Amino acid sequence: MLALITGGSSGIGRDMAHYLDSLGIDLILVGRNKDALKEIKNNSKVNVEIYDMDLTIIDNVYKLYDKVKDKNIDILINNAGFGLFGNFIETSLDRELEMINLNIVAVHILTKLFLQDVINRKKDTYILNVASSAGFMPGPKLSTYYSTKNYCLKQTLAIYEEVRRINKHIHISALCPGPVNTNFNKVAGGHFNLKSASSEYVAKYAIDKMFKNKLIIDPTIMMKLGVFFTRFTPTKLLLIINYHIQDLKSRKK
Fold first, then answer.
1. According to CATH, what is the number of the domain 2-251?
2. Which of the two ends of the chain, N or C, has the fewest CB atoms closer than 10 A to its terminal CB?
3. How does pLDDT run across 5-55, given as a tens digit for each residue?
4. Residue spans per domain, the chain
5. Inter-axis angle of helices 11-22 and 34-42, nearest 10
C-alpha cells in the first residue's frame, strides 16, 4: 500500500508516518520543513518520497496532485493545517486567508481529485481528513480555525454518504481530536488549558480506526463527552463558554 500525508513533517502527520512505516506501508510525505521530511525518510524502513511544498499556495496543491496522480495511492491523509488565536477584527487577514487555503481549499481539492481517480476501484482505498473537535461548534477568539474545521468535518460526512452508495471499497473518515501535544499552540499563538493527548497516541488511534472504517474518529473520552453535551447546550451559552476557554488560552502565551 501507499499513503500520502500532508503536513507530514511534524506532529500528528509525522507520527502517522512513523506508524504506517511500522505497518509496512510506503509513504509520500508533504510538508514545509525539508530537513524534517528527510529525517523521517532516512529513518524509515519503507519507501518514502518527500515534497517540501507550501500548500497555502493553491497552485502548489495542483502541482502536488500532478506529481502523485499516477502513483496508485491507497490512502490519502489530509492533515496539514494551523490555527490563529485572537479577536476577528484584530487578527491578520492575510494569515486567515492562508489558513482557509490550507485547512479548507487544499483539503477540498485533494479529496475531490483523489476521489475522482479512485471512484471505480475495486480495492480498499482510504481518505482520512483531519478535522477537530472544533468542527462541532463555534469558537470565539479562534473563529476562523473553528470555521475551517466545521467545513472539513461536514464536507467529509457529506462525501461519505455520497460515496458509500457508489463504491463500498472507498472508506472515508474524519479525525476529530481535542487538544494534542503538537506545535499547534506555538503557531496559533495560544496555550491549551486542558491536558493534551500525545501525538503518537492520536496518530495510532486514528490509523487503526480508519482501517476499521470508523466515520468520526475521536481519540479521547473527554472530548467525546464534551461534544455530546454541546448538543444540549443553548447556542448563546455555548458561545460564552467557548469564548472564556479561548480567552484563557490566548492569555497564556
1. 3.40.50.720
2. C
3. 999 999 999 999 999 999 999 999 999 999 999 999 999 999 999 999 999
4. 2-251
5. 20
